[in-house]
Design goal:
It is built from 16 helices and 20 strands. With 558 residues, the chain is an alpha/beta fold. The strands form five sheets. Strands 1, 2, 3, 4, 5, 6, 17 and 18 form an eight-stranded mixed beta sheet that branches. A five-stranded parallel beta sheet has the order 7-16-8-9-12, with helices on one face. Strands 13-14-15 form a three-stranded antiparallel beta sheet, with no helix packed on it. Helix 9 packs antiparallel against helix 10. It is globular and about 70 Å long. It binds ligand NA7. The site of ligand NA7 has 20 residues, from helix 5.
């Protein structure tokens, strides 16, 4: 099932300026910037092509929940005018083709080693460089490492007793085979009803003989209202790209955000506002009022509205009740966008099993045993999510100064300064790491912000002959405290979500993303930069020296 062919290559040894791990949006922009800066960079990618998330998640129905014009790179304005997005929310094949086009236009692939799984990254205290080793025995030595490893890239299959005894096919949405499976005439189980499950279930149900959905926690989902973009509509979006890019830099995800709290709006008007947003489709319903993520009553009102919608769509009332989410605020897990998800449960060939009421006992050769039943299936699709935000890094043995392992340092939860670096791991840049807004808004915008800052730092170091950059342990503790405070002022931490690591048994419960918004985050980062990179440590001290090319002048003392 794996698309990882990383063990089949001849070992190599190379020295370079930068090793970039991952060839998704982040890795490609890293390569683009390295080229611009005249630096040598080598990108190592586990998969057989570029695309990251969009390379691995090739399941039917995979679609972005950010509008296609926004979910695109800002550094190729000519491509904005040439590339024609066909739908409001692009499907996986179109996004993957787009990413391949970006790589091709900027001749980035020649710097990428595909089918190359990074296993170890070790900082050498003496030389101040990083040694990056791969599963096939390659060794790369570099001054800087950019971890562009993604936040949702370590797919998780839960440990279910007897899984290895299953005779049929096992798939995970996050590691979907390139040879598309054919479900015709098959009995298929789908485990998991997060965003991936909600997207794949209607597609499988349309093809398979019988689809059985194993749901542990019902999810809030709203219609994507996806549709083809009319040429005239797309043209006006195209004409507006420069303004849109500017707005995205400020806001991250561009949405119509109401400034009105729900409580200030009379009851009869509230419903009309929500109904309009529901009809519009997309995540905008979460911004219909200003207090949905901070006021439990406003949140519950919206949750009730969505539950009523589910009841109005799903014909069987027992099934509808099973699909209604309770017990956590709407939006505290990333809101799902669907295309006919709830309608799918009106199909005669679809069953829903609530595994909280009837838990999975285990897997046997011909199916899934619950407490009360054996469901015979030919194929099991795991839509069980990811070890999010830290999983991709914790799968690599990363040793910083004095041989300290990153997994050891992050044992009680991840620590970063501004989501960009972690103390004790000099010259190691994390793109959209824990402590950054990334997964909350438009990740492409967050990626570009983090890469831009990373290359500003690298060029500053080179201008001033700084060999080593690190961050102060106290600066990162303060930052993570701030990340927590911001989250605690909202309803986000109430849910057992992957934002909190709650989906991975044994993972520390630390709220990882920064939910204060892109504008607030950017302002904080720029304040740090304007303050001579306060909290960063350059060759063991504060930023020193100034040259005529640098925009940062302060901090000439150490
Ligand atoms: P998610 O959102 O983490 O969803 C995973 C789903 O799998 C969720 O419904 C889980 O139920 C379920 N799950 C996980 N383990 C089990 C076991 N052992 N038994 C039954 N069900 C289980 O991952 P997705 O891939 O859907 O989406 C991730 C993000 O990608 C999404 O937020 C978008 O930003 C894109 P639970 O809720 O834990 O009870």
């Amino acid at each position: 099932m794996s698309k990882d062919r990383s063990k089949n290559r001849e070992p190599q040894a190379k020295r370079t300026d930068i090793v970039i791990v991952g060839a998704g949006f982040a890795g490609l922009y890293g390569l683009f910037k390295a080229k611009q800066a005249g630096l040598n960079a080598i990108c190592l990618e586990k998969g057989g092509d570029v695309g990251g998330t969009w390379f691995w998640n090739q399941y039917p129905g995979a679609r972005c929940d950010v509008e296609s014009v926004q979910y695109s790179v800002s550094y190729d304005p000519d491509l904005d005018q040439e590339w024609e997005w066909t739908e409001r929310y692009a499907a996986q094949p179109e996004i993957l083709e787009y990413i391949k086009t970006v790589a091709r236009r900027h001749d980035l692939k020649r710097h990428i080693h595909f089918d190359t799984l990074v296993t170890d990254m070790t900082f050498d205290d003496g030389s101040g460089s990083w040694t990056v080793a791969t599963a096939s025995g390659d060794v790369f030595v570099a001054d800087y490492v950019i971890a562009a490893t993604g936040n949702l890239s370590a797919a998780r299959i839960p440990q279910l007793a007897g899984l290895e005894s299953f005779d049929g096919e096992i798939l995970h949405t996050g590691n979907w085979p390139e040879d598309k499976p054919d479900f015709s005439g098959k009995r298929v189980a789908v485990i998991g009803t997060g965003s991936s499950g909600i997207q794949v279930i209607p597609q499988i149900a349309g093809q398979a003989e019988r689809t059985t959905v194993f749901q542990r926690t019902p999810n809030f989902s709203v219609p994507a209202a996806n549709r083809p973009l009319k040429p005239s509509e797309f043209k006006s979006l195209q004409d507006n790209y420069p303004e849109m890019r500017e707005a995205a830099k400020q806001q991250g995800l561009i949405l119509r955000r109401s400034k009105t709290p729900m409580k200030s709006v009379p009851e009869n008007e509230r419903r009309a506002v929500l109904e309009a947003r529901w009809q519009e489709g997309g995540p905008g319903i979460m911004s219909a009022f200003s207090d949905i993520m901070t006021n439990p009553e406003a949140n519950e009102y919206l949750a009730d509205f969505v539950r009523d919608k589910i009841r109005s769509i799903v014909k069987d009332s027992d099934t509808a009740e099973k699909l209604c989410p309770y017990g956590y605020p709407i939006g505290s897990k990333r809101i799902c966008l669907d295309t006919g998800y709830f309608e799918t449960f009106n199909r005669e060939n679809v069953d829903l099993i609530d595994v909280k009421a009837d838990p999975i006992k285990g897997i046997c050769s011909n199916g899934i045993s619950t407490q009360s039943n054996l469901v015979e299936v030919d194929c099991i699709v795991f839509a069980t999510g990811f070890d999010a935000m830290t999983g991709a890094l914790s799968q690599i043995t990363i040793q910083g100064e004095n041989g300290v392992a990153l997994t050891e340092k992050w044992r009680a939860g991840p620590l970063t300064y501004l989501g960009l670096m972690t103390a004790g791991f000099p010259n190691f840049f994390i793109i959209t790491g824990p402590g950054s807004p990334s997964v909350i808004g438009n990740v492409v915008v967050s990626i570009e912000f983090a890469i831009d800052r990373t290359f500003e730092i690298i060029s500053l170091m080179r201008e001033r002959s700084v060999g080593k950059i690190d961050v102060e342990p106290n600066a990162e503790l303060d930052w993570m405290k701030h990340v927590k405070e911001v989250a605690d002022a909202t309803l986000f931490p109430v849910a057992n979500s992957w934002y909190l690591g709650a989906n991975v048994p044994g993972k520390p419960r630390v709220f990882m993303p920064y939910v204060g918004g892109t504008a607030a985050y950017n302002e904080k980062v720029f304040k740090v930069i304007g303050n001579a990179y306060k909290g960063f440590v350059f060759d063991g001290g504060m930023l020193r020296g100034k040259d005529k090319h640098s925009s940062v002048g302060a901090g000439e003392v150490s």
